[in-house]
Amino acid sequence: MKLTRRTVATLSGLLLGGLATTAGAQTKWDLPTAYPANNFHTENLAQFVKDVDAATGGKLKIQIHDNASLFKAPEIKRAVQGGQAQAGEFLMVNFQNEWPVWGLDGIPFLATSYDQSMKLYQASKPAVQKKLAEQGMVLLYAVAWPPQGIFSKKQVASAADMKGIKWRAYSPATARIGELVGAQPVTVQQAELSQAMATGVVESYMSSGSTGYDTKTYEHLKFFADTQAWLPKNAIVANKKAFDALDQATRDGLLKASAEAEKRGWATSEKKTGEYLDLLKKNGMTVYPPSAQLKGDMQKVGETMLKEWIDKAGPEGKAVVDAYRAAK
């Protein structure tokens, strides 16, 4: 019988799903992520795993599977929900079609700084925790990406300059942006982005300086408009059954390490924002502030998307936005 990686992961989930058998028994978890080992999110995860080991006295061991090696980006949330992996990291905006609130931090110009993004996170956190509980998961922590800008072959002065270009979409929100500016959205996850640019499948996209550097975008696209349009977040979650099977001391240690990882991750993301832009410049990319026209055009896109989002999200979504605005 040939075992596929998913079969192995499923068997691992069944056998190692956090079901401690005796006092002092070691529990092993798998944690898939879509990002490479040198990405700051993954580096933060690596420190988190070390902290969990220390905080639990070695009783909980977590194995990171980076760069979509165990599950592809769109599969990770479902893998944790179904117990094929005990924990995992996913980009929240990718799941907006499943539940509108997942896509809240992908709306252009709703939250454009780390301070605003944290306030948006705090406003939405109770709803997120409730949804995850309904789906059999527990939120461990979440960390924002650096602010998003526009990568392109030529400098973009207005939304009209993006009409007809092949636009990489990695979420429903980025696909909608492409539609609203008249681009041609093509769904491409980060692990396939370099090849997509090399083969001409993608000519432009919106993401952070981090993604631009990790994927060597500067080898294919030479311009980055630093629009600082939004700061999407990655959520690190655990399967609730696996979490509940841990003894109280181990759960406490895991949550302590999670709180530290969240604080460290946000600080690192903010610190690295400028570093990534410098690295893009050093590799030949022109980084420029958006023109007044481009910023105005993108703000109109954001206003349209926020209205559409509230219509879909209903009272639950409106309550989150109202809480955020009250905290601003």
TrEMBL record:
Residues 1-25 form the signal peptide. Keywords: Signal. InterPro entries: DctP_fam, TRAP_DctP_sf. This is TRAP transporter substrate-binding protein. It comes from Ottowia flava.
